[in-house]
Amino acid sequence: MLLNTLYLPELREMIASDDREGLRDFCGALHPARVAEFMEGLDAQESWRVLLAADPELQTELFGYLDPQKQTEVVHNVAEAGDQQAISRLVVDMPADDRVDLLYRVDNSVVDELLPLFPRDDRHETLRLLEFPEGTAGSKMTTEVAKLSEKLTVREALEEIAHQSEDLETIFYLYVVDEGGRLQGLVSARQLVVHFRKPDTPIAELMQRDVVTVRANDDQEAVAEKVAAYDFLAIPVVDDERKLLGIITHDDIIDVLRAEATEDAHLAVGVAPLEGGYLDTHWFTLAWKRGMWLAILFFAALLTALALRNYEGDFQKAAWLVLFIPLVISSGGNSGSQSATLVIRGLTDGDVRLGDWRRVLKRELVMGLCLGTTLATAGYFCAVLLTRSALPEGADAVAIAAESPPPTMGEVLVVPITLLLVVLCGTLSGGVLPLVFQRLGLDPALMSNALVAGIIDIAGIIIYMTVAVWMVSGLG
Amino acid sequence: MLLNTLYLPELREMIASDDREGLRDFCGALHPARVAEFMEGLDAQESWRVLLAADPELQTELFGYLDPQKQTEVVHNVAEAGDQQAISRLVVDMPADDRVDLLYRVDNSVVDELLPLFPRDDRHETLRLLEFPEGTAGSKMTTEVAKLSEKLTVREALEEIAHQSEDLETIFYLYVVDEGGRLQGLVSARQLVVHFRKPDTPIAELMQRDVVTVRANDDQEAVAEKVAAYDFLAIPVVDDERKLLGIITHDDIIDVLRAEATEDAHLAVGVAPLEGGYLDTHWFTLAWKRGMWLAILFFAALLTALALRNYEGDFQKAAWLVLFIPLVISSGGNSGSQSATLVIRGLTDGDVRLGDWRRVLKRELVMGLCLGTTLATAGYFCAVLLTRSALPEGADAVAIAAESPPPTMGEVLVVPITLLLVVLCGTLSGGVLPLVFQRLGLDPALMSNALVAGIIDIAGIIIYMTVAVWMVSGLG
C-alpha cells in the first residue's frame, strides 16, 4: 500500500489558510475511510484541524478510520494542548469497543484526565470494559446492541429499532431478552423486513432460539474461529447467567484474524508477539522480543559445536567432510520447517486434527522418502564432482592430499545417505512436534520453524558423523 | 478442533434403522453449522442419507456447511450412484459463489453431467462465473444481489425486498441501479428500517453515491484488503461500464484472508501454494510443491560447499574452526528470517510501506548491532571454553594438537567478530530484500525465510573464513 498523497498539498494549503469550509466539503465528499486515507500524510496537529472542520456527525467516524497510531497521537497532542473537553467528546462518541481499544493505547495519565469528562453512563461502561484483559472477547465487544423484548410484534420491533438505531453499531441481528436481560433468542433485520407485510406477527414466532454465544473471558482467537466457521456477522457475549453483555462484530473479527496471522508468522521465526506494528514498536522492546528467542536458538546451535568437537580428529583425516556440513543441516532444516508449517497451518485452518496423527506420520514418511531420495541423488553427483575434481588454484593441493586423501566413490556415499536420513528426520519431527505441542495444550505455533530447524541441526550433525565414521576408512 | 463425535452413534443408528423422522428432527433442532459439525464423522454416503431426511429447505444450507472435501465426495458419490437429478437440485440451490467453488473442485465429467440438469438461467450464470479464473473477484462473487430502481420510495423498497429476499444471500446493502443495470448508489437495510416511519421518502434521497467497487478481474487478496480497510459487509463487483455483476460478502472475505495467511506461511518456508488442505492434497502434488523449492534451496546450499572448498587446507591447520560453522550460519539465518518476516507481515498489514525503507534500514542496523553484540559476547566465552578445555576422552588429543594447535585467546576472536558481522548481514538483507521484491512488483512473501537463510548461509561462510584467514596465523 502506497501512502496516498494525492490531495496532501491541497489539504495542507487549506489548513494553512484556515479554509474551514473547504475542509468541511472535502471531508463530506467521499467515504470517510477514503478521506482518512488521504489524511495519512498529515501529522497529529494537522489531522486535528481537519477533524475540527468536518461536520460534527462525521468527526467521530473519520477519526475512527485513522490508523491506531495516529489516533493515539492525536489524543495525546490535543490533551497536551489543554483541549480535554473536545477530545473527550470525540472519544466518547466512538463505538464502545473502538473507544476501549484506543484507551488501552493512550497513556494512563491522559485516560485519567478524559474519563471524568465522559457522561456518567459512558464512563461506567468504559471502566467496565477496560477491566477485561486485552485479547478476551470482553475487550473486543461493543455494548451498543439492539435488544428487544420478546413480547413485541414485527411492527413494534421495527418501530423500536428505528428509535434505538442511532446508538447502534449494527442492526443485522436483533437480540431478544427477557426482563432480567437474559438472552432468549435472535431475529435478523432480514426477517423483520421479509415480514414487513405481516406486521402483526409476534417476533417470538420468528425468533431463533438456539443462539451460539461466547463468554466475556473467552480467548479472542477462539471467538474469531467460531464466527468464521458459522459465517456470522456478529456473535453475542454473555455472562455466566446468560445475561447479554454485548456483541462482537464482523469487522473486529477480521482484525483479530489478521492479528493472529501476524502473530503466528512472527512466532514461526522466533519473534515474541508484538503489541503494535513493526515500525511502531520501540527498538528496545523489539530487540528484547527477538533477542530472547535468538538466544535460545543460539544455545541450541552451540550444541552442534559440542557435537562436532568429538570429531575434530576425523576432519583432519578427511577434510572433505567439512564441505557438506552446511548442506546437510540446511536440507534437514528446510524440509523440517516445511512440514512444521504445513501441520501448524492445517491445525489453525481446521484441516488437521489431533486424531489425524497417523495420517500425518504416514504422509511425512512418504514425503521424507520421496524428497530425501531426490536430494540424495542430486547430492551424490554433486559430491563426486566437488571432491574429485581438481582443487581450486592456489590451494596447497599436494600437502592436503598427503594428509587427507580425497574420498573413494564408495566413501562419497556418506553424503547421499546422510541427506536421506536427515530429510526423513526433518519431515517426521516437523510433522509430529506441532501435534505433540497441541496435545500438551500448548500453542503449536510455538514449535516454530526456527526451533524445528535448531533440533534438526543437531540431529543432522550426529547423523552425518555417525555415517561418516561407519563408511570412511580410518575414522572413529 | 477435535472431531465432534458426540451424536455420531445416534446418527449412525438412525441411518441404519432408516429412521427418517428422527433424522429430520435432529437436522432441524440446531443451527445448521452445528448439525454439519456433528455430521463430520460420517462418510459421504451416510451424509447423503442424513441430508435426504432433512427438511427440503434445510438440505442446501446443511450441505453448504459441510467441509469442502466432504461436499465434493458427496457429489461424486451420488453422481456415481446415478442420482444426478437429486444432487443437481441441491447444488443449484446453493448461493452462486459457493456453487461455483464446489464445481471448481468436482471432476469435469461430473460437472458436464450436472450442468444440463440446471434450470436455464442458473446454468448460464454458473457457466459465466466458471469463466472467471480462480483467485479473482469474479470467482468469489454471488450474483444474487438486492437491486432496486432509484425511483422507489422507502415503502416500495421494503415491499420489493420482502419480495426478492428469498433468493438473496444478504440484504445488508441494497444496490440502486439505473435502467441499464449500472450502479448508481447504495442504501443499507438499516437506513430503510430507520426510515420505516417516513415511508414516502424517495430512496434516491438516502442513497450513498460514492460507492467503493471492485472489478471482476481484480485479485481476491486486494479485494479482501479493501473490505477489511473499509469495514464493509459486502463489496459490489462491476464491469468496465460500471454495470453491477454481483457482490462479494464478508464470509467470503474471511475465507480469502485465511487462505492468504496460509499461503504466505507456506511461501515463507518454501512450499508453493496448495489448492486444498494439507491432508487433502495428493502426496505427489505435495511432494512436487515442496520439492521444487527444496531443490532451489539445495543448490543455494551447494554454493556453501563450493565456498568451503577454497579453505580445505585451512581446516587442517586450524581444525577448531569447523566447530563453529553451524553456529555461525544458523545465527545469521535466524536473525535474517526474523527481519524478513517482520517486514513482510508489516507490508501485508499496511504498517510498513515502500517509502519507509530508510526507517526499516535504520531499525535493522540498530537491531543487527544490538543482537549481534549480544550473541558475539556470549559466543566469545563459549568459544574460549570449547577450544581451550580438555578434548573429550577417546579423541586422539596429542596427535590433533601437533598438527592443529588450539587457538590463542586472540585467535578465538574470529568467532565473535564473525557473529556480529553475520547477524548484521542477516538483519539488513532480511529487512531490505522484501522491500526490493515489493518494489519490483513481486510478492514480497516470495522472499521467503528459507531463501533469506540460504543467502545468509553463503555470506556467513565467506565472512567466517575471511575473518579467520585474516586473524589466525598460518592460514590463507
TrEMBL record, chains A, B:
Subcellular location: Cell membrane; Membrane
NCBIfam families in the cross-refs: mgtE
Keyword flag Transport: yes
Recorded family membership: Belongs to the SLC41A transporter family.
Oligomer and partners: Homodimer.
Functional description taken from the UniProt entry: Acts as a magnesium transporter.
MF terms in GO: magnesium ion transmembrane transporter activity; metal ion binding
Protein name, per record: Magnesium transporter MgtE
All residue ranges annotated as the CBS domain in the record: 141-203, 207-263
Gene3D superfamilies the record matches: CBS-domain, MgtE N-terminal domain-like, SLC41 divalent cation transporters, integral membrane domain
UniProt membrane topology term: Multi-pass membrane protein
Entry-linked InterPro entries: CBS_dom, CBS_dom_sf, Mg_transptr_MgtE_intracell_dom, MgtE_N_sf, MgtE_transporter, SLC41_membr_dom, SLC41_membr_dom_sf
CDD domains according to UniProt: CBS_pair_Mg_transporter
Spans traversing the lipid bilayer: 291-308, 365-386, 413-437, 449-472
GO CC list: plasma membrane
Key words, A-Z: CBS domain, Cell membrane, Magnesium, Membrane, Metal-binding, Transmembrane, Transmembrane helix, Transport
